[in-house]
Amino acid sequence: MESNNINIVERALEVFRSEQDEIDFVASHLDDTFRKVVELILHSNGKVVISGIGKTGLIGRKIAASLASTGTQAIFLNAAEAQHGDLGMVSRGDIVILISNSGESEEIVRLPAPLKRLNCTLVAMTGMPKSTLAQQCDYVLNVGVRKEACKIGLAPTTSTTATLVMGDALTVCLMEARNFLPENFALYHPGGALGRRMLTHVSELMGTVVPQVDESTSFRDVLVEVSSKKLGMTLVKDAQGHYSGIITDGDIRRVVEREANFQQLTAADFMTHGFKRICASKMVNDALELMDRHKITTLAVTDTDSPDATIVGILHIHDIYGFTSRK
Length: 327
Hints:
Layout: E1 2-3, E2 6-7, H1 8-28, H2 32-42, E3 48-52, H3 54-68, E4 74-78, H4 79-82, E5 95-99, H5 106-109, H6 112-117, E6 121-126, H7 132-136, E7 139-142, H8 158-177, H9 182-188, H10 193-199, H11 202-205, E8 212-214, H12 219-229, E9 233-237, E10 243-248, H13 249-258, H14 267-270, E11 272-273, E12 277-279, H15 284-294, E13 298-302, E14 311-316, H16 317-322
Parallel strand pairs: 3-4, 3-5, 5-6, 6-7, 8-9, 12-13
Antiparallel strand pairs: 1-2, 9-10, 10-11, 13-14
């Protein structure tokens, strides 16, 4: 595909290569200052304030959001609005990360003076380590690139990518230093898929109808039970009324392929002995891990963890991914 004598795909690949090269260049200059900033944030009693304007402001918002969602108290402060009252969002002793590629943005270089009066520690994230901004800050994270990805060298491209990666590096290092676990992540993301799975109990999603047949049930009636309950399975009870096995769609298909006289069989002839179960009080994520491990799509749900627990429902994989209860 050609446009203005430019091969679009080839040019896109050049942009990818250019940004990758510049990220490597920035990484080569990473020094002990980065470690000091991470430790500073870890041991701070205040919050992290990220400030920028324009394109760097957009990157700053993302960095602040990433930090806040992974255990580090953080907010974004628009540098322009800070001059008109929003500086009140900053508390004494906060750590403020000021983002400016040039280090000379007027709105940014005005901030260090009032922030120092609040006894804030200042970190410059800039491409110019000797800029006005850098000279006013306590720490400097160098995100300087040699060139932007665009040929005129003016559109913020590689420089904003480098800044974003530096923010991601801070986020990940802080997460791991805090031993931030999946369950912590779920608490900060209750509306996301992971959060819902880790904060939802199996009892909230399971269906309370339990398909079941006896070991003596005919093949035809087993098929009726599996089809009518629409779960692709049925549990099987022995003569004493105890659950002894399970029959799934797969079991039915295999016996039809294997046995010429399959219609004369009873449930005991082709059931799978035993089945996987989970307690209703467990989290949905535990159920999903169990399903994944055993490559199954349903679990019997019990009222307790004891071996003689009562089966109170069935959890299907669709309940987990669809998050719609069948009660």
